[in-house]
Every structure is written in C-alpha cells, then in structure tokens.
Design goal:
The chain is an all-alpha fold and 173 residues long. It is elongated and about 60 Å long. The structure holds fe (iii) ion (2 copies).
C-alpha cells in the first residue's frame, strides 16, 4: 500500500505489532514447557499472561481508531521465533539451552520495544495521547520482561551452565 499519512503509518505499525504479539502468544507456551529453570519457566508464563493483555490493548486501540488490526504478517517475529525454535531443538546441557532461549526471547523483546516505541512516537505526534499512553503501558512491560530475563541469565542460568560444564570437564580428567 502507498503510505500517504502518519495515520496510515500508525495503522501499519499497529498491524505489524498485532501480528507479532499473536505469533508470540503461540510460541510462549512451548518456551515455558522447554525451560529447565523454574524461574525462567515462571517468567515465560508471566509474559504469556502479559502478552494476552498486549493483544487486547492493540484491539482496543484499533477500535478507537476504527481500523482492523489483522491482515498483516510480521515477518521479523516469524524469523525471530524460527531462530528460537532451532535453539530449542538442540540437544545438550539444559542450562545452556535455557541461556539460548533467554537470548532468543530478549531479541523478541527488543524487537517489540522498538515497534512500540515507534508507534507511541507517531501516536504522540498525531495528538492521540490516550493511545500513546496505552502503548507506553505495554512498552513498560516489555522493558521489564527484558530486564527480568537479564537478571535470570546473570543470576542463575549462566552460573548453572558454567558449573554443569565444569562438572563434565572434571569427569573427563
Ligand atoms: Fe508484547
Ligand atoms: Fe514481549
């Protein structure tokens, strides 16, 4: 489609996010299932609940703007989730697979953070303050999830991976 106004650009960004969130909604349960660390499992489950809210907020915004949120496929999210899936199918030390999944999930969060930041900036420019505020609420949750994942990696998963690998090396000696 030809983009001729900021309104149309906002609509495109929102549709992309709507597709991204819906794809993530389907992926998070299998990520939670695969996670070995119970903290990581819990983080994925919590973010699944939040993601349901993100989809609802986008539907709410679409109603406010009288647009349809569907009809677009976010190819970036498709690719990010595909990469994550490849990692999850690897055999190996569970804590290393957890670390790989955290990395994949953080790439997803960063993608969403940029998408919501862009959409919020456009909404602000258009004087759509309520919509900008709703987008900010989701943006805050994506940011908090990203930080939580860093915490789990640094506080637990990477140390577990190191000691698991260390133990293996000892056995071989
Ligand atoms: Fe989200
Ligand atoms: Fe997210």
């Amino acid at each position: 489609m030809a983009l001729e106004s900021l309104d149309e650009l906002l609509e495109e960004e929102l549709k992309d996010l709507y597709s991204a969130e819906n794809q993530l909604l389907k992926a998070l349960p299998r990520m939670a299932k695969k996670a070995s660390s119970s903290t990581l499992k819990q983080a994925f489950t919590t973010h699944l609940k939040e993601t349901e809210g993100h989809v609802k907020r986008l539907q709410q915004i679409a109603e406010m703007l009288e647009i349809k949120p569907g009809g677009k496929k976010c190819k970036a999210m498709e690719g990010l989730l595909e990469e994550g899936k490849e990692m999850m199918q690897e055999e190996g030390e569970p804590s290393l697979i957890d670390a790989a999944m955290i990395g994949a999930a953080q790439k997803v969060e960063h993608y969403e953070i940029s998408g919501y930041g862009t959409a919020r900036a456009i909404a602000e420019k258009l004087g759509q303050d309520r919509i900008a505020q709703i987008l900010q609420e989701t943006l805050d949750e994506e940011g908090a999830t990203d930080e939580k994942l860093t915490e789990i990696a640094q506080g637990e998963v990477l140390s577990m991976a190191m000691s698991a690998i260390g133990a293996d090396e000892d056995e071989e000696e």
